[in-house]
Amino acid sequence: MSACDDLLHPHPHVALLPSAGMGHLTPFLRLATQLVHHHCNVTLITTHPIVSLSESKLITHFLTAFPKVNQVKFNLLPLDHTTVNSTDPFFLHFETIRRSAHLLSPLLASLSPPLHALVCDVTLISSVIPVTESLHLPNYFLFTSSAKMLSFFSYFHIYASKAGDDNPAMLGDVEIPGLPSIPRSSIPHLLLIPNNIFANIFKVDSPKVTKSNGVLINTFEGLEALSLELLNGGKVVEGMPPVFAVGPLVPCDFEKGELGNNQLKWLNEQPVRSVVYVSFGSRTAMSRDQIRAIGHGLIRSGCRFLWVVKDKKVDKEEEEGLEEVVGHELMESLKAKGLVVKNWVDQGETLGHKAVGGFVSHCGWNSVIEAAWHGVPILAWPQHGDQKINAKVVERSGLGMWVTSWGWGEKDMVKGDEFGERIREMMGCELLRGQATHIREEARKALGDGGSREMNFKRLVAEWKLKS
Ligand code: UPG
Predict the structure, then answer these.
(1) 410 and 363 Cβ atoms separated by less than 8 Å
(2) DSSP characters for 23-92?
(3) Which numbered atom of ligand 1 lies nearest the CA of 368?
(4) Alpha carbons 169 and 230: distance in angstroms, whole number
């Protein structure tokens, strides 16, 4: 655009509406930093109440670092828990926002200067689109998982209709045109249970994807070229809006400050690429038996390790200390080769540390992207949700290995000996290391001049300017 165009079409004003959980908030705030960088005026809509302490802290850090970003508080209506089939605090929060969505209308209409677009979370689309339609406001959504998962999500209503809506037991493997088949065993298992909240959101939202003006997604060509091509070519579903690969959305400075001195000091003392980092994201709580099997497995692996233990889904509910959860005797043995913590760590900084040479991950998509960004090989251990579909992306791209016989972490137990053996295998695999380094280069390319992320942000901003 020329200087004259810039005068005619001033900086776009974009509102962002994340849903719940660090896995959703983090990519939204990283997206916000990029929009600021591309001279957009940004309004961040924060929903209240907020589920976890880490979310509250991250929002505060972000707003302190970006004082020009306008924060609008969106107070949610109370949810009648007798009307929903779930106890998961994050899914309940998705539903609370969805049922409060009509209250967004006056809030969005009152913003000044007027908005050019709203980018909402993928978990909110069918309740937010009617609001933006009534305001004649372009609606985009941020898909916080992989392009493979977006293909599955967009295609889901077609797939489900084949079995009859109320009979998920009849569903087989998923055959999305052009993509390798997704085995039934990789489908998020909640989708196979009728009438739970997650399945209901999926069912209602999947056909609404085509009603959106565009999808922003945290991935890049070098990682998921085929899925992106098929999505944008309208091969997955007809009428698919443009999919903008704005990834990798990588850790930003405002997120720093949580890497304890103790942890940094310990990492600094370890040899290059000798440490395996073990963490399962922000919302995976493990059974005591599995936690202890992991501990034994880490000792068995013979490797150095940094292990983040989580006992509860929501951080506010963590009550017991590390020693109580892991067991006193095991904790003593673990100290010989590793560091075990039970608090929030700065994962971006950890994965970027030269001592870290491997990552045991549940394959939450942000973790995958962060590992790709730093070229750290992954041993995939999906726990729930989209994570098996993401694990396949990790395996196919060469970024990591996946032991499919481990099943779903949330349901199936993995023995310590087996866990330790596979860690040893990953840490010793030169091939994986080389492939992960290649993906890292691809990720860096996407951010460079003419790279896919930069091109897509420019396209988006130009599109929004024309809507003024
Ligand atoms: N993180 C930290 N420190 C911790 C724990 C987590 O910095 O101690 C960060 C991590 O770096 C990442 C985010 O928190 O940026 C966690 O996101 P992710 O790796 O995607 O895992 P989840 O928290 O499990 O994310 C949820 C879903 C996951 C999905 C993701 C995006 O569980 O399956 O892919 O949301 O939709």
Answers:
(1) no
(2) HHHHHHHHHHHHHHHTT-EEEEEEEES-S-HHHHHHHHHHHHH-TTSEEEEEEPPPP-GGG-----HHHH
(3) 19
(4) 28
Under a CB-based contact definition with an 8 Å cutoff, are residues 304 and 337 in contact? yes
Our answer to whether residue 48 is catalytic in this structure is no
Instruction: Compute the distance between CA of residue 184 and CA of residue 331 in angstroms, rounded to an integer.
Output: 39
Residues contacting residue 418 through CB under 8 Å, at least 6 positions apart: 297, 403, 406
pLDDT at position 6: 55
Local structure of 186: helix, strand or coil: helix
Answer whether 464 contacts ligand 1 (Cβ < 6 A): no
**pTM greater than 0.80 (yes/no):** yes
As a whole number, mean pLDDT of residues 155-179 equals 84
**Minimum-distance ligand 1 atom for the alpha carbon of 383:** 33
364 lines ligand 1 (CB under 6 A): yes
The yes/no answer to whether this complex scores an ipTM above 0.95 is yes
Atom 3 of ligand 1: nearest residue by CA position:
345
Q: Which DSSP symbol is given to 110?
A: T
> Are the C-beta atoms of 206 and 156 separated by less than 8 Å?
yes
